[in-house]
Amino acid sequence: MKAVVVHGAGDVRVDELPAPAPPGPGEVLLALEWGGICGSDLAYWKHGASGTATLNRPMVLGHEIAGRIAALGPGVSGLTAGQPVTVHPARPTANSVLPPRLAGRTNLHSRVRYFGSAAFDPHTDGGFSQYRTVPADQIRPLPDGVDTEHGALAEPLAVALHAVRRAPDPRGRTVLVNGAGPIGSLVVAAALHRGAGAVIAADLCADSLAVARAMGATDTRDLSRGAGLPQDTEIVFEASGAPAALGPVLRATARGGTLVQVGNLPGTPAPAALGELVTREISWVGSYRFAGELDEALAALRDGLDVGPVISHRFGIEEAPTALAVAADPATGSGKVMLRLADAP
């Protein structure tokens, strides 16, 4: 089978790998159809690392995936061959136990194997392949009317919904989203889904702002043209991950307001202007992956939330190196770049 394998910094290949063995007890064999390229996939390709996870051996990329069930292992019930599904990519290790104060916050397990992650050695292969065996409890059926391309985006939508859950109730309020890439634009949609009265999106890229508008943003600010951020916004989401943005974003947050950091910040020292955090008494909270929001994301897709506008490019699996290059290059105006892992039946 074909698989997208990163061998080191700057070295990604479409390799021919052995097809998986028949699924064992409690397992499901998936025939994958679509995968969405994420920032962590780009980091492994460009740098051989993502955050503190360093690539030590070749690894299959990809955690935003969907396809159909090809075969069921012994003891698996409630699923059927041919059923369209996506995957919850996280699986806590057996020795990771949440303390009572973190009950339900499964994204905060100290040791988690995640699809397409080099956090452990051996690494955890991802799903940018034609087939993948998955534990049955990580399978999530797609609702009627949700195709596998959109189903592959349930994972980043869950990230956005989790970010909104980390904020105060947005119902009826004006929300600011700084950074309108795929996650930022999905935060726009998630905030509106949760009842925000209006959402302002800000970015340096006109193409990204167009996507944010398509996802429901009621106002946009093109920072490359000198537009300023709105002031005194009670709920702000920082989705750019740029340390230089923190000063202006904190100044845009209302006194006593909340800033949710959903964009990944560097793991190394970086200058940032943080004085307003204290003098404006702002609550600055982090948002990491998601907990139970994958099911909420699937329900939102079922109910009509359209993630299609964030998709800018589609490539076949054999074009994966080109797809990664397009996703990584701001000059392409790319949003979410999708890989067609196999054709739907």
UniProtKB/TrEMBL annotation:
Q: Name what cofactor the protein needs.
A: Zn(2+)
**Record keyword Metal-binding present:** yes
Residue ranges of domain Enoyl reductase (ER) in the record: 8-339
CDD domains cross-referenced by the UniProt entry: idonate-5-DH
What keyword terms does UniProt attach to this protein? Metal-binding, Oxidoreductase, Zinc
Give one Pfam hit by family name.
ADH_N
SMART domains, alphabetized:
PKS_ER
Q: Which Gene3D superfamilies did the record assign?
A: Medium-chain alcohol dehydrogenases, catalytic domain, NAD(P)-binding Rossmann-like Domain
| Gene Ontology terms for molecular function | oxidoreductase activity; zinc ion binding
Q: Which family does it belong to?
A: Belongs to the zinc-containing alcohol dehydrogenase family.
Recorded protein name is L-idonate 5-dehydrogenase
